[in-house]
Every structure is written in C-alpha cells, then in structure tokens.
Specification:
By secondary structure, this protein is α+β, with helices and mostly antiparallel strands. Helix content is about 25%, strand content about 30%. It binds zinc ion (ZN).
C-alpha cells in the first residue's frame, strides 16, 4: 500500500488505477508497475525495454524517395512479462501521431528514444497485447558514433530508395521496437513504394501487388530475428531466385548499377548468387542444418553524402552489401546466419561470439579455396602485434562499447578459436561448434555459456586458457600445443 501511494506521488496515476483493478487471478492482487526503459545492456542502457516480450512485428509503411519520407504503422504483438502499468518502445527521431493498445487509443509520450505507452488498463503478466504505433518523418542515418561503427549506418537514403543496416542500435530509426538482440521476434514487412521500384526484405516474399502508381511488397520472416537484423531495402533491382545445390531457397537482389564496378566480378548477379549458394551449403555441412527457410543477398550501391559506405551486414536470411565485395566477405556474412543470427548475443559485450566465429569461418573459407591455412592465419595475427601494441588492450570477452567492433574482436578472437582447436583437437572442436549451434539455435548466448560447453565437450580444464585469451589484456605467450 505504501508503494502505490509513492507511485501516485510521482504522477503514475494509471499505475495506481491499475493496481486497484480486480485481481487477475484468485488470491493474488496484481501490482502493476512500469516496465524498465532499458533491457539491461551494459553498452546501450536504453536499448530495449523491460516488462514485455515482443513476439511479432508487422512493419507497415510507405516510402517515397522523392521526399525521403516514411509513413506507417507498426503493430507489435507482445506478451507482458510482469503486471505492466506502462511500457516503452524504442523509436528515434520520427514523429508519433497515434498509439493504440488492443485497438484502443492510448496515452503516450515520446522522450526520444523512448516512446512511453500507458495503456488504459494494466496489462496482466502473461497476457498478450497488440500495440500499434502510427508515425512518420524522414529517417536519419546514424553518424553520431563513428567510433562504434566506423561508417554511417542505419537507414541510408540512396538515389532510388533505401539501404538499411542497423547494427547495433538503428532499427529504432525506422520502426518502433524492443530494439535489442535479446528480444527476438517474427516479422512481416508491408512496404509501399512508387510502382517502378521494388522492395527486398528478410525471409520469403508473401505477396506483391500494384495499385495505381504504387506497389506493395509483403515479406515474412517467420523465424525469430533480432531487430538489428531486420532490413527492407528499396530500389531498382535485378532479382534471381532458385535453390542452392543443397536445396535451400535463395533470393538475390542486385542493384543494376553494380555492373562493371569490379572487373573481377563483371556479372555481379552471378557472383553474389553463386557465392551465396556455395557458402550457405558449406556452412550447413560444417556447423549444422541451416536455421532459416531462405538465403540470399542484397547488393546495393549505397553512399552517404557522395562517399561509399564501407559495410556489409548479416541481415537475417539475406546479408546486405553496399557494393560488390569479395567472396570472403560473403562467406563471413553467411557464417553469421549461424553465429549471430540463429544464435544471438544476450548483451552486446558478448559480440565476439558473433565476430570471432564469422572471422574464423572466413579463414576456413580461405583455406578451402587455396589461401593461407587457418593455423598460419592465426600465427600471422599473433605475430603482427608486438607486446607493446595497444591492440592487446581490448578484452575480447568485454571489448567496451566504443571498441566493440575492434579488430581484436574479429581476427583476435578467430585466433583464439584456432588456438582452442589446436588444444582440444579437430574433432572435439568441430563437435563444440556444432553442439553450440544446435543447443542455442533461435536463442541468445553468453561467453560463460560457451566456455562451459567447451570444458564439457573437451573434458579439459580450460579456465586458465580462457582467462588468458578472452578476459585479459596484454600479449600472452603462445599456448603449448
Ligand atoms: Zn561480422
């Protein structure tokens, strides 16, 4: 009772009304409280939100390249994980005009990046609800923290549409969401564009229709997906669909302007399509059956203020490339479908579980295609950094926000995986990678879970090894073989 009074005093009247509503179950009187404004990420305290679990997003919007405006409504189906008096969604920059919960207009305030929604009645724990947010504006490309990502990212306006790559925190620049990888959900994208353009997103194309001078594309990703892996790219595309030799449905979209960009790959469609098929099948054989029901690529000539955007991203089922890339990059982004997408980080400090694994896979690819052996790659990385090189100051298992994409997390972590492989043996290491994937497919993972599994699978005490190689700064002596 004192607690409710205190809530009243700070102005949470709805919480109080909810708290004296009839009890949801016999014998217990629900105490409705606000969900947290962040999900508890050490690097991004406001990313994600507490109090509910998003299950499905229906992201429905129109976009016009002439005005760069996006207008739409996103419907989030969620389950309350506490008796919820109010909750937040993450939404940056765009203007909200209306919010409903289960179809009823609802009070909201937008303290960017937090959209605070106060339902008329408290939402009992475990109840399902649908929150619909109508919003619009010109999505802004994120350039605020170049140290984190190195190049502009998020919603990039191209001359004929949009290129959208959101890691780690830009999904909320184009749709309201529980924007954190620990809350995965299924997605439907319904995107309306001028009829001479088309849309490629994650998953499978469900429908496509033209009405007047507009075209609407509906894409469905039914498997759990982290928000930063969502994409819906707009432009003029060449499309190719089929199946990989291993039988996985594949759809590739390539910007016709990429033709002739790279003399090594004069036919970008053939290049992206064939490399994607080969890498998807190879990783399915190496790491375990593919988790999703389509693969592919989105290759778009994307620039920001006239300068090329230097990145590729493992957007789920269909990695995103801002130009023609080499085969190694394609192999890297597809390996992320296993390590990053099917298995996602619980919090961003575990980022090496994505990047070191994808880099290790990239080395496997190189070795298989006549490049350096993985053993030599690992030793080359070790040798390239002297004991006084600050490169060793980044702690792989907790690289810190502004260095979360540091090379130590990529090559440095791949080197550690190779040293681990040499310590526990090829067969045990392969069992470890496959078991890791099989046990956590569609879920979230942490470093302690990986090190515990490594010890279990290898029957070795690896504590000192991991302490030295994952949790320490400084250049260690090479491990004894
Ligand atoms: Zn990567």
């Amino acid at each position: 009772m004192r607690r409710t009074r205190r809530l009243l005093a700070v102005g949470a009247t709805i919480a109080c009304v909810a708290a004296i509503a009839p009890a949801a179950s016999a014998g217990s009187r629900p105490h409705f409280t606000p969900g947290a404004s962040g999900i508890g990420d050490p690097y991004f305290p406001l990313e994600g939100n507490g109090g509910y679990d998003a299950q499905h997003y229906d992201v429905d919007f129109s976009y016009d390249p002439a005005t760069k405006r996006l207008d739409g409504t996103t419907y989030v189906t969620a389950r309350a994980t506490q008796d919820l008096s109010r909750f937040d969604l993450d939404l940056q920059q765009l203007d909200v005009s209306r919010v409903t919960v289960d179809g009823r207009d609802t009070k909201f305030t937008h303290n960017d990046p937090e959209l605070v929604v106060t339902p008329r009645k408290g939402l009992p724990r475990n109840s399902r609800f649908v929150v619909a947010v109508t919003y619009g504006g010109v999505p802004q490309t994120v350039i605020g923290s170049p140290v984190v990502f190195g190049s502009p990212y998020g919603f990039v306006h191209t001359d004929d549409g949009a290129f959208i790559g959101d890691e780690p925190n830009a999904a909320s620049t184009w749709f309201p969401s529980n924007d954190h990888p620990s809350d995965k959900a299924a997605f439907t994208f319904r995107v309306t564009v001028p009829k001479d353009l088309s849309v490629i997103a994650n998953g499978r194309l469900a429908s496509q229709r033209t009405q007047g001078d507009k075209a609407t594309f509906v894409w469905d990703e039914k498997f759990p997906m982290a928000t930063y892996l969502a994409t819906a790219d707009i432009g003029t595309w060449d499309f190719k669909s089929g199946r990989t030799p291993g039988g996985i449905p594949e759809t590739v979209a390539v910007d016709p302007k990429l033709k002739g960009r790279d003399p090594n790959h004069p036919d970008p469609m053939a290049f992206f399509y064939d490399t994607t098929a080969e890498a998807t099948d190879l990783w399915a054989k190496t790491f375990g059956p593919y988790a999703f029901d389509s693969t592919g690529a989105i290759a778009d000539l994307a620039t920001y203020q006239g300068r090329p955007i230097g990145f590729s991203l493992e957007t789920q089922t269909r990695p995103l490339y801002s130009d023609v890339r080499n085969t190694t990059t394609i192999a890297h982004e597809l390996a992320h479908q296993w390590y990053g997408d099917a298995l996602s980080v619980r919090t961003w400090d575990n980022i090496w579980l994505n990047e070191s694994f994808a880099t290790y896979a990239q080395w496997l690819w190189d070795e298989k295609h006549g490049g350096m052996t993985i053993h030599d790659e690992a030793h080359a990385v070790y040798g390239a950094h002297s004991g006084t090189d600050p490169w060793w100051n980044v702690v792989i298992a907790d690289p810190k926000r502004d260095t979360m994409f540091h090379n130590r997390v990529y090559s440095g972590g791949a080197m550690v995986l190779q040293f681990l492989r040499e310590k526990i043996g090829d067969e045990t290491f392969s069992t470890l990678l496959r078991t890791w994937y099989a046990q956590h497919k569609y879920g979230n993972v942490t470093t302690p879970e990986f090190t515990a599994l490594a010890k279990k699978v290898s029957h070795q005490d690896l504590d000192a090894f991991f302490r030295t190689w994952l949790y320490s700064t400084g250049k260690p002596a090479l491990p004894q073989a």
